[in-house]
């Protein structure tokens, strides 16, 4: 990786970490703020939260086209501005229409930022270094969200609306910091992929090309199951099961969520060293096995009626195991999306995969909450266990479709000579990244 690419990537990663820090300030408190602090009721709070997802679903099909035509940098800057306006608007809004409009702006902005940043990381990395770049992004995101949530909890006061205004103002500023950071990034003249740089020309039939790519379609199906069985259940089905069946206190649920973040932060780079030279399809298949164990532990936590300590430990272990699986996916899935994409459709592929994630995050919570809310506890655990096993099956099938270089980019890297001459040994070695 050249010095210029490394500097650009560091600036992107730093801005992304700061925006995650600001986002962590508000995410846990948005419902309470709208429903109770602004006294707009639970229905308005629910609509505001839904608008975050709906607006993302609306803008994502258009985002890829914009990225491929105009480049990721201007699209990302527009996204940060929209997110900043939405965050500040939520802090200042006292009526239902303004809250909903602000939530739309925030959701749309965040949705645009994600594939734009992913495309910028692709442009500033190589096939071999891409796994580490995306793993670093995931690590900084979780660290920023975790620290932001902790600091936000110290600053917030439900009795004073001004404390929430301060939180949303900090979030808005952090989005502007991200915008300023990436606006000054000097992207390479060409993304580090095997084709040439896209210009104003764009391949016709982008969606048709994507749907004709069996590997990408299979990866999108796998991605939907991944996000449905994990992120889509964290704050809905799994949380409801934990409180209603395992009967843990809400505060303990916070500890479980903290265990998830701690597992990611502690394990990310250890896991990266273990998986970055292995076949991506096998890594994703192993995630399915780990998550199967996690869901079985969650189910068992509801059956242990004699010891609440054991039940709580099982549930916290569930969240920690999910974190281990997530740390395995971060250097695997996003780089694979980039490696499957034709150069003129990198933004389209990133946006399509982000759209799949949003669909899973919209459907997953509704299904999980509905099943647990109607007392279908055993059926719910059975469904998510089957989803986890499905991840393993889908991953192994995807491995048959991928080329050796796509499944393991390190196979195509130049081999290191087994021996060196005395003259070569006298020269300093050049580290590769």
Describe this structure in words.
The structure is a single chain. This protein has 433 residues and is mainly alpha-helical. Helices cover 78% and strands 0% of the residues. It has 19 helices and no strands. It is globular and about 50 Å long.
Can I get a quick summary?
The protein has 19 helices and no strands.
Count the DSSP helices.
19
The topology string of helices and strands comes to HHHHHHHHHHHHHHHHHHH
Spans where pLDDT lies below 50 across 5 or more residues: 194-203, 415-433
Helix content: over 70%
Described by the principal axes of the CA atoms, the overall outline is globular
User: Radius of gyration over alpha carbons?
Assistant: 22 Å
Number of DSSP-assigned strands: 0
Distance between the termini: 6 Å
Mean pLDDT: 84
Keywords:
0% strand, globular, mainly alpha, 433 residues, disordered C terminus
Topology, element by element:
Layout: H1 3-26, H2 30-37, H3 41-70, H4 72-92, H5 96-123, H6 130-155, H7 161-183, H8 206-212, H9 214-229, H10 231-234, H11 237-246, H12 250-275, H13 280-301, H14 308-329, H15 333-340, H16 346-373, H17 377-401, H18 404-407, H19 422-426
């Amino acid at each position: 990786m050249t010095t210029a690419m490394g500097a650009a990537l560091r600036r992107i990663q730093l801005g992304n970490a700061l925006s995650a820090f600001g986002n962590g300030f508000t995410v846990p408190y948005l419902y309470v703020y709208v429903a109770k602090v602004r006294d707009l009721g639970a229905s308005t709070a629910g609509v505001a939260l839904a608008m975050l997802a709906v607006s993302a679903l609306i803008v994502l099909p258009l985002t890829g086209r914009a990225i491929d035509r105009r480049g990721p940098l201007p699209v990302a800057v527009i996204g940060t501005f929209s997110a900043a306006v939405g965050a500040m608007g939520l802090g200042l809004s006292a009526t239902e229409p303004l809250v909903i409009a602000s939530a739309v702006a925030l959701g749309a902005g965040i949705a645009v930022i994600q594939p734009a940043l992913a495309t910028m990381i692709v442009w500033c990395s190589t096939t071999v270094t891409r796994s580490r770049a995306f793993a670093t992004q995931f690590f900084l995101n979780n660290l920023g969200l975790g620290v932001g949530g902790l600091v936000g909890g110290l600053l917030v006061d439900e009795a004073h609306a001004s404390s929430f205004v301060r939180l949303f103002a900090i979030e808005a500023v952090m989005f502007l910091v991200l915008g300023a950071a990436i606006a000054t990034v000097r992207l390479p003249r060409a993304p580090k992929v095997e084709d040439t740089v896209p210009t104003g020309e764009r391949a016709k039939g982008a969606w048709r090309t994507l749907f004709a790519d069996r590997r990408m379609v299979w990866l999108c199906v796998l991605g939907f199951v991944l996000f449905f069985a994990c992120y889509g259940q964290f704050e809905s089905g799994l949380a409801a099961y934990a409180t209603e069946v395992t009967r843990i206190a809400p505060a303990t649920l916070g500890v479980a969520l903290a265990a998830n973040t701690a597992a990611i932060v502690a394990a990310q780079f250890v896991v990266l060293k273990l998986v970055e030279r292995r076949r991506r399809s096998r890594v994703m298949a192993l995630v399915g096995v780990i998550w199967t164990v996690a869901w079985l532990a969650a189910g068992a936590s509801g059956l242990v009626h004699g010891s609440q300590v054991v039940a709580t430990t099982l549930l916290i272990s569930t969240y920690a195991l999910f974190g281990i699986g997530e740390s395995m996916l971060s250097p695997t899935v996003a780089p694979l999306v980039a490696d499957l994409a034709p150069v003129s459709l990198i933004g389209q592929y990133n946006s399509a995969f982000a759209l799949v994630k949003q669909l899973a995050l919209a459907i997953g919570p509704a299904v999980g909450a509905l099943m647990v809310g109607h007392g279908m506890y055993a059926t719910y655990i059975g469904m998510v266990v089957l989803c986890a096993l499905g991840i393993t099956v889908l991953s192994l099938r995807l491995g048959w479709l991928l080329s050796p270089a796509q499944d393991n980019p390190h196979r195509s890297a130049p081999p290191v000579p087994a021996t060196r001459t005395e003259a070569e040994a006298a020269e300093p070695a050049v580290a590769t990244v």
